[in-house]
Specification:
single chain; about 300 residues; alpha/beta; Rossmann fold
């Protein structure tokens, strides 16, 4: 259990999940320190911001001083498919070493669903490798594995939103029949904060998902229905993640490298295999259509 008087380190505080987690922690009156690479970035006055870079281990000692619990919410997808796995590995190693030296007691990592027995995409495989690296530390490691997170600003959600709202015709291969279990951003935040006070979760790996399991094709249709749009589907034998990534990058503000990495994972089923977290942290999960409606309302 994390004491209310202890300081929590939040890495990835400017990212999609980090931006939602920070106010939730502050609402609980937690003492939060954010790792930032740019001190010029604005942070709430109640937050301590410390400069550092997970790829530069010499900068990390002051970041971890006095830290009891740390959230690991970083990835390197924007570096491109040839580099992000290596950068993810290096960042996780540097984090683990610095946290170990500082005596950090508990690390919380948000990873991705996907079974290692299957041929995972580079993105999902890298998430698993980060888990392996972090698990080598002396601290307790709590890992939450999620599929698509439904929330404005999330790369996966914004990709789906772009497709259903701007593309009247969508390419459809067999990959769109792969099953997924999307979860609302606010439910992810609930789990990430609940584990601070639930010792039975700490040190465990927990699958977290929403109330429905469905195919990507059905998810696109559900999003289109909520957004009040109609899309036609053109069957094709295969879809090039690289080509689609570049195309989406040209037509939107989305990062083509991130899109490519996400699309590579279309063939990986991402559903919860272990539902034990539902008993340890019981609450009403956000219905899928409501989650989509909330996210579309917040989207710009």
């Amino acid at each position: 259990m994390t004491s209310r008087d202890s300081t929590i380190l939040l890495t990835g505080s400017t990212g999609f999940v980090g931006q939602a987690l920070l106010p939730a922690l502050l609402e609980q009156k937690r003492s939060v320190r954010c790792l930032v690479r740019n001190q010029g970035l604005a942070t709430p006055c109640a937050v301590e911001a410390v400069s550092g870079d997970l790829l530069k281990p010499e900068t990390l000692q002051p970041v971890f001083d006095g830290i009891d619990t740390a959230y690991y919410l970083v990835h390197s997808l924007s570096a491109g498919p040839k580099r992000f796995s290596d950068l993810d590995h290096r960042a996780a190693e540097n984090f683990t070493e610095a946290a170990s030296k500082a005596g950090v007691r508990h690390v919380i990592y948000l990873s991705g669903l996907g079974e290692q027995a299957n041929s995972l995409s580079r993105h999902l495989a890298s998430r698993g490798e980060v888990t392996r690296v972090l698990s080598g530390g002396p601290f307790e490691l709590t890992t939450f594995r999620a599929a698509i997170i439904i929330g404005a600003g999330g790369a996966s959600f914004e990709l789906l939103r772009f497709l259903v709202r701007t593309q009247p015709v969508l390419l459809e291969s067999d990959l769109l029949q792969t099953r997924c279990q999307p979860i609302a951003l606010r439910d992810v935040i609930h789990y990430l904060t609940a584990c601070l006070d639930e010792p039975r979760i700490q040190g465990q790996t927990c699958d977290i998902g929403g109330p429905e399991v469905l195919s990507y094709h059905t998810l696109l249709e559900r999003m289109a229905a909520v957004a009040n749009t109609v899309n036609l589907y053109l069957p094709v034998p295969s879809i090039s993640s690289r080509w689609v990534g570049r195309w989406v990058g040209l037509l939107s503000r989305l990062d083509s490298k991130v899109v490519e990495a996400l699309l590579e994972g279309l063939g990986n089923e991402v559903i919860c295999r272990d539902q034990s977290i539902r008993k340890l942290v019981p609450f009403s999960l956000t219905p899928l259509d409501k989650a989509i409606r909330m996210a579309l309302g917040d989207a710009t």
